[in-house]
Amino acid sequence: MRYIDSASRNTSDVLGEWLASFSPLAVDALRWQTGYFSADGLAPLAPVINELKSQDRLTNCVIGSNGGETGEPDIETLVNLVGTPRANARIGVVSFSAGLFHPKVYHFTRQDGTQAAYVGSANLTTPGISGMNIEAGLLLDSSTGDPDHVLSDVAAAIDAWFNGPRPGLSTVTALADLAPLVAAGVLGVAPTPRTTQSISGSSGAASSKIGLKPLIKFPPVSVKSGTVAALGSAAAAPSAPPSTATVAPSAGPLTSSPRPPFPPYVLFAPGIATPTLGAAALTGSTLAGGAAGLVIRLNRDSARHFSGGSGTANVSVPVATIGTMRFGVFQGKYQRPRAEFDLRMRYVSNLGAYEVASSSTNVMVYGYAPGESGHGDVRMVVPAAPARAIRDHAAAHGFHVPTANDPMILEWPTPADPTFKATFIDPADPLFATVDGMLATASAGGALVGQGACWLPAGISPNW
C-alpha cells in the first residue's frame, strides 16, 4: 500500500503516471468509477483499453454526470474507445436530482491474477490525471502484499452497478443511447471543459492567488475516433503521453508479469534467473503514439566517455517506456531486474553518418532489490569503447565532440529489430537544431518524458 499526494509536486504522486504504468499486455480487466469525467482523462488508459477491446476483455466504467456536466461528445469518445457494444464492456452514467455521484476508484486485474487499485480524490479529467489539481489517494496492489479480499471488494462494488437497475444509472451500450440522455438533461451538449478555469473576484481585478500547472502533459483524445493524438510532427512530439501505447500488430505478446518487491511496471519473463536478451527482452508493446524512441539531453554522467572520464556512463530510462521491456535477473550483490540488447552508435555530420563497431548494452532497475538502498531508477549503459570511437572521429575531423546538454537520439528496439540505436549529432547539421528544439519545446510545455527526454516521432532519425 502506498499513499500518493500531488501536493509534493512530484510526478510519481500523480494519478496519470500510475495509470500509464500498466503494460497493455499485462492487464486482464479494467474497472473504474469517477465523479467527474472528460475524454482527455482517458489518455493514460487508452493503450490498455485498446488492448482489452481487441481481446474483448472486461471493461466496466461508471461515470458521474453531476448536474448534467459531462458532455455528450466525451461519452461518445468513451464508447468509441471501449468499443461498445461488445460482450465484456459496460458503460454507465450516473446522475441524481439531489446529491452527487462522487467516487474516484480505478481497478486493474492482471493476467497473472494479481490486482491493483487507486482509491482517492482524483477524477478522470485533465486536471485530475495531470497533477494540475492537488489530489491524494491510496494505491493498493496484491502483488506487493495488499489483501486480495479488499481489492476484490473494490472490483465488486464497481461491477454491482451493472447487476440490475440502480437509481440514477443510465447504461450506454451504443451511440444511439446518447441523444435521449442529452434530451433528459443527464448529459450536456458541449464537451466537458479540459482545464480548470481561473476564478477572479466580482470586481474583475486580477487574482493574487498562485495558479497550478500540470505536472504531466497528455495529448488530447480524439472525440470521434476515441484515440490518443498520434505523433505527426516534431512540434507535436513532446505532447505524447508518458505511457506505452498499443501492441505492434506483427508482434506476438510474450508472457510477462510483475514481481514483488519491484514496481508493477517492471515486468519479468517467467521462471528466468538470468538477464533476458534481445527479442526475449521485449513484451511486444510499442511506445506511446507510435514514437520511434526518445530524444535525450546528455548530462555529465551519460557524456563522461566523450570527455575522457572513467567509470560507467548511463542514461536514465523513463518509466513511461518500461512496459516495452521484459526483464530477467542479474545475479550480483543485489538481484536486480536486467534486460540486455545489442547497441549501434553513430555520429551524424556534413560528411554523413559515421557508425562505429556494434556493441552491447543493458537496462537495469536500481533501488528496489532486497537490501538495496538509494533512489529507485532505471538506467541504460553507454559503453566506453564506441563512445570513445565517436569522440576520436569527431576530433579528427574538427567536429564538435558530444558533451553535456547536447541532444542524442535513442531509437527503441522492436521484436523485428531488437537493437538500441544511438545517434550523436554535430551542431552544424540541421538535425541537431531539430531535436534540440523538440527538447526545448517539451521542457517549456511541461511535457518531458521523465527527466531530460521527449518522444521521438518516426521519420526524424536518418536511415541506418
Question: Could you characterize what this model shows?
Answer:
The protein is α+β, with helices and mostly antiparallel strands and 464 residues long. It folds into 2 domains: 2-183, Endonuclease Chain A (Endonuclease, Chain A), CATH 3.30.870; 237-456, no CATH class. It is built from 8 helices and 23 strands. It has helices spanning 15-20, 46-55, 72-82, 126-130, 148-159, 178-183, 384-396, 430-444, and strands at residues 2-5, 27-34, 59-64, 89-94, 104-110, 115-120, 136-141, 169-172, 244-247, 257-258, 267-268, 276-277, 285-287, 293-297, 313-316, 328-331, 335-349, 352-355, 359-366, 377-382, 407-411, 419-425, 453-456. Strands 12, 14, 15, 16, 17, 18, 19, 20, 21, 22 and 23 form an 11-stranded mixed β-sheet that branches. It has an 8-stranded mixed β-sheet with strand order 1-7-6-5-2-3-4-8, sandwiched between helices. Strands 9-13 form a two-stranded antiparallel ribbon. Residues 196-205 and 229-252 have low confidence and may be disordered.
